[in-house]
Structure formats: structure tokens, C-alpha cells
Design goal:
two-stranded antiparallel sheet; 3 domains; 62% helix; globular; mainly alpha; two-stranded antiparallel ribbon
Length: 331
């Protein structure tokens, strides 16, 4: 960025008119506005630092509250300014570069994010690379500089772990698994349900593979040619979730009374095995076994065709009345 004082940059912006500017003039306006935003960010850093000092003596509220209320900011942004001030305390040259407009507040935020996740030993080593990091911040865009900071922190952590004999990969894997979480919320404006999932690489890969398999299957189904890809992804996500849900097989639709009877009898059955009769009276395991033997004997001489499951019996049967003869269903 071209060296220019804040006063000169502000004066240039006062005279500029983007509506009639050509490409080079627009680029100059953008550079000057970026320089002023960086300078304003440095003012916020100084305000957060001073508010912290006042709050320590009971003369002010915490900096997050003051910056949010007086600066018309969200709580998240106000906390971000406080973290930015901590990074500038650790690396003063970054605050000077921010005030000069050489770097942006996002560069300082990248440093702050890394510093918060380091222990004291690695943090001190990371701060010792302040000069090299500032050179990188002046040359690299936000995404690249953020990666530079994270890579440096990983290298320093790995070196420390090698010196102390700690398994870095195992420790990182356990840290990632411990940090995994699921959050859900409902957008009050749209009514849409949001689900945010943070997974470690192993479980994240398993989830991605499962979604990919279901997506391939759904794309090939008839009637999906006109649907958008995002809708197919939603269907694949729901299919992946529902594929792990076990449903009790039924012989047909039950009316409301039958459904209520099933739920009531399930609660009173032995070992979670639902046993029902036409009067919704729970049968014992012995009664059900006797009725099953009587039914099997009668079924062999019945003229009607009896439908039974081919799978081996693992639970007592459920005896339910039929119109002309008794039928048997297995769970």
C-alpha cells in the first residue's frame, strides 16, 4: 500500500466521487478507505485497552459492554475488538502497522485467534516471530496470512512435543474429538431450522462419505431430474440420518385406538416386548407361548393360508384377533 498519512487519505476521500471515477480512480478510493478503516480499528484497540484499565479500578464497565453499547456493535464484534487489543499488547508492531493502514484488522484477528489457543510456552515462541509475521501480514491477503499463523503454531507445537516426548498426532486427534459439537437453532425471521455440526476429521470423513453414497442413489431415482442440486443434497442428508433409525415392522396401518393400545401394552410388557390381546390386556410370556403352540397346531389343519415371517423367531409372538382365523406376527 502506498505510504500516505491519515489526514491526506481522508482529504482525498472527501474530494473523490466514485460515481464518475474510472478504474484506477476507484482502486485509489478503495485503498484510501481501507487505510482509514485500519486506522479506525487501531482507535478501537486503544479504547478497549483503556476501558480494561478503567474496569480494573471499578471506574467503567467491561470493554465488551462499552464497545457494544456506545459503538452500536454486536456482542460478538465487541468481544473481537477486545481480543484484537490483547494481540496488539503481545505484538506492538502490529498495532503500529494497523494505525498506519499497512495491515487490516483481520490480520490482527488472525494473530489473536492463534494466540488464544496456545499454552504459555508455545505462545512465547510464537510471539518471538513477530517481525517475520508482520512482513508476511504486509504481503499476504487475509486467507493466506491466517494459514501462515496456523502453520507456524503447529510447527512450534510439534517441536515442543518432540522435545518433551509427547505424541503430537494423538494429542491433536483427542483435542479435535473433544471439540466436536452440534448446535441447532431456529431462524425467527424465516422459521428455518439450522444445524451446525463440528466434527473431527475421522467422523467428518465418515459423514461426508455417507452423504455422498445417498446422494448418488437419490440422483439416479426417477422424478429427480428437475429438482435442484441443493434439494437433492437435503434429501441425501435426511436419508443418511433416517437410515440409522430402526422402525418396528407392521403388517398394515393401525387405527388410533390400536396405536394407543400398542403403546400402552409395550410399556407393561416384559423386557420391552409388546404383548397384546383384543382387550388390550398384557399377556405374560408363558401365556403367549401357550397361545402360540395352540395356534401352530390349529394352523396346520386350517384351509386358509397362514403368513409367517421367514426369519427365525427371537421374541415371543404377538397374538391378535383376525376376522376368520388367528394370525401371527413376529417383531
Amino acid at each position: 500500500m502506498e505510504a500516505m498519512s491519515v489526514e491526506a487519505a481522508f482529504a482525498e476521500l472527501l474530494k473523490a466521487d466514485p460515481a464518475v471515477a474510472d478504474r484506477d480512480e476507484v482502486a485509489s478510493i478503495v485503498r484510501r478507505s481501507s487505510q482509514l478503516r485500519s486506522w479506525l480499528a487501531s482507535i478501537d484497540v486503544r479504547c478497549a485497552r483503556r476501558t480494561t484499565e478503567l474496569a480494573a479500578t471499578g471506574e467503567s464497565e467491561p470493554p465488551e459492554s462499552l464497545l457494544g453499547d456506545e459503538g452500536n456493535r454486536s456482542t460478538r464484534d465487541a468481544v473481537g475488538v477486545t481480543h484484537r487489543s490483547h494481540a496488539c499488547d503481545a505484538m506492538p508492531s502490529f498495532e503500529e502497522a494497523l494505525a498506519a493502514g499497512v495491515i487490516s484488522g483481520d490480520h490482527v484477528d488472525a494473530v489473536a485467534r492463534v494466540l488464544r489457543g496456545l499454552d504459555n510456552e508455545v505462545r512465547a515462541e510464537f510471539i518471538s516471530h513477530e517481525a517475520a509475521l508482520l512482513v508476511a501480514a504486509c504481503r499476504e491477503r487475509i486467507v493466506m496470512f491466517d494459514r501462515t499463523c496456523r502453520d507456524l503454531a503447529k510447527c512450534l507445537t510439534a517441536e515442543r512435543d518432540r522435545r518433551t516426548g509427547v505424541d503430537t498426532e494423538a494429542a491433536e486427534f483427542e483435542r479435535q474429538r473433544a471439540a466436536a459439537k452440534v448446535r441447532g437453532w431456529v431462524d425467527k425471521d424465516t422459521g428455518m431450522h439450522h444445524t451446525h455440526v463440528e466434527l473431527d476429521p475421522e467422523r467428518g470423513t465418515r459423514l461426508a462419505d455417507a452423504l455422498r453414497v445417498h446422494l448418488r442413489r437419490i440422483v439416479k431415482q426417477d422424478g429427480n431430474s428437475g429438482r435442484s442440486y441443493s434439494q437433492l443434497e437435503v434429501e441425501a442428508f435426511m436419508a443418511a440420518l433416517e437410515s440409522g433409525v430402526t422402525r418396528r415392522p407392521t403388517a398394515g396401518r393401525r387405527d388410533a385406538a390400536s396405536s394407543n393400545r400398542y403403546r400402552r401394552d409395550t410399556r407393561s410388557g416384559l423386557d420391552g416386548i409388546p404383548l397384546t390381546t383384543d382387550r388390550a390386556r398384557p399377556w405374560s410370556h408363558t401365556c403367549a407361548s401357550r397361545a402360540s403352540r395352540r395356534y401352530n397346531a390349529a394352523a396346520s389343519s386350517s384351509r386358509g393360508r397362514i403368513r409367517t415371517n421367514s426369519a427365525p423367531r427371537t421374541r415371543p409372538p404377538i397374538i391378535t384377533p383376525a376376522k376368520n382365523h388367528t394370525t401371527e406376527r413376529f417383531t
